[in-house]
Write a structure and sequence with these properties.
Blueprint: H1 2-12, H2 16-35, H3 42-67, H4 75-93, H5 97-120, H6 126-145, E1 163-166, E2 169-172, H7 173-191, H8 193-203, H9 205-210, H10 215-241, H11 252-262, H12 274-293, H13 298-323
Antiparallel strand pairs: 1-2
Helix pairs in contact: 2-12, 3-7, 3-10, 3-11, 3-12, 4-5, 4-6, 4-10, 5-6, 5-10, 7-8, 8-10, 11-12, 12-13
Length: 324
């Protein structure tokens, strides 16, 4: 009786790939809380969330693509292009901020459409496609901006960078938007048929096609939706920095992939939870914040992040072998 009770309890536990991000976050918070003076403060936690909100929103789109067994190396530069487009359209042509923002998001969604069509129609590997569009987005960003930062930004574009008080702690509106986007995406993936199709395509595209689900349409939709998230991240970047920076986005693609992998989403597709990506992004933010408070060089921050990524992928690979 006792053995069967233990087995039933084990069966109810989430997979280690889902528990891992939460365990890593708890350990990181405990270590830095014991070794630094100001880590456990509302102001510091608010700062961490503000620091990760741009990468966090990019990582939502990256999660959707990785769930389909793809990858997007262009996400960071597409985000940078979106920020330049929306700020320059507003500055150069006097377009109202809402329309300029919409125009920027349309451009990032168009890049997603191009990526999706190349992957589905020409059957190019997502790695190669998005590596190419990474360079294209970088070139367009530099040419359109003339490698100059856009500093004349309407106040309405920076509103999400403003804060409000919760119990004496300042919380950015952009942080609230990031969390809301995660909750909406989580609900969509979990509770709707179209969301479950994303998992099905990543798990077994041929079987999915045979049951009548249009796999190519799902893939194109995922890449376009990811582009929309990159556009929202563009707005958050402008809101946080107050400028349109043509040199932004050059490392955000790797940061987003790191958040997704640390969050427990399998690089082989079909398995993962978008809320885990949020925890993964926060883990990276906590590590960098805690190590900075300890006075550790940024080189070691990159080193530790790289080790964590390798460990997370190793755990995923071993769990896949164990499931066979």
């Amino acid at each position: 009786m006792r053995t069967s009770t233990v087995n039933t309890f084990k069966d109810k536990l989430p997979p280690i790939s889902q528990l891992g991000p939460f365990i890593a976050l708890a350990i990181a918070c405990l270590v830095f809380g014991l070794t630094t003076d100001n880590f456990f403060s509302g102001a510091n936690f608010s700062l961490i969330l503000q620091q990760v909100m741009v990468v966090g929103v990019i990582a939502i789109g990256q999660t959707l693509i990785i769930l389909t067994a793809g990858i997007d190396l262009s996400c960071g530069m597409v985000m940078a292009l979106g920020s330049i487009v929306m700020t320059k359209v507003a500055d150069d042509f006097g377009v109202p901020a809402p329309l300029a923002i919409l125009f920027g998001i349309t451009v990032t969604a168009a890049f997603g459409l191009v990526n999706g069509l190349l992957v589905t129609r020409i059957k190019l590997p997502p790695f190669i496609v998005t590596l190419g569009t990474f360079n294209i987005a970088f070139a367009i960003t530099q040419l359109y901006s003339k490698a100059q930062t856009v500093t004349s930004v309407p106040d309405s574009m920076t509103w999400l960078g403003n804060t409000f008080k919760i119990g004496g702690t300042s919380v950015a509106f952009g942080t609230v938007l990031m969390i809301a986007l995660y909750l909406v995406t989580w609900f969509w993936l979990r509770e709707t048929s179209s969301g479950r199709h994303v998992y099905a395509v990543g798990n077994n595209p041929e079987a999915t096609r045979l049951v009548g689900i249009p796999t190519d349409r799902v893939l194109v939709g995922v890449y376009v939706l990811a582009g929309v998230f990159y556009g929202i991240a563009s707005l958050l970047s402008v809101a946080r920095t107050g400028v349109g920076d043509p040199n932004a986005g050059q490392t955000e693609n790797l940061d987003a992939i790191t958040a997704v992998v640390l969050g427990g989403t399998s690089l082989f597709g079909g398995r993962g939870m978008v809320l885990g990506t949020l925890i993964g992004a926060i883990v990276v933010g906590v590590l960098r914040n805690g190590l900075t408070l300890m006075g550790v060089s940024s080189v070691y921050q990159v080193l530790i992040t790289g080790i964590l990524v390798i460990v997370a992928v190793t755990v995923d690979q071993l769990s896949r072998k164990g499931a066979r």
